[in-house]
Known about the structure:
Elements: H1 2-16, H2 25-39, E1 43-44, H3 47-57, E2 66-67
Antiparallel strand pairs: 1-2
Helix pairs in contact: 2-3
Amino acid sequence: MEEAASADATSEQEDDFANNAHLPEWKQECIRNYVACQNETDWQGPCYDCLRRCEGQQDWPFGMCWPLGKKEK
């Protein structure tokens, strides 16, 4: 039963980002992290600034925007 719920959650997430499939993987990751930063209550930091930095550096700046308990230096 848990496997089915997990599969449903995964397919829903894939559907949410299906229109980004043509983008490079690094950009898709930037977008996924931005959405998580905006929507999840356990994220901290200036999400939009982090998205812009991610687009420039092609890597999410976890030192600026991070889920609680997982901040990198």
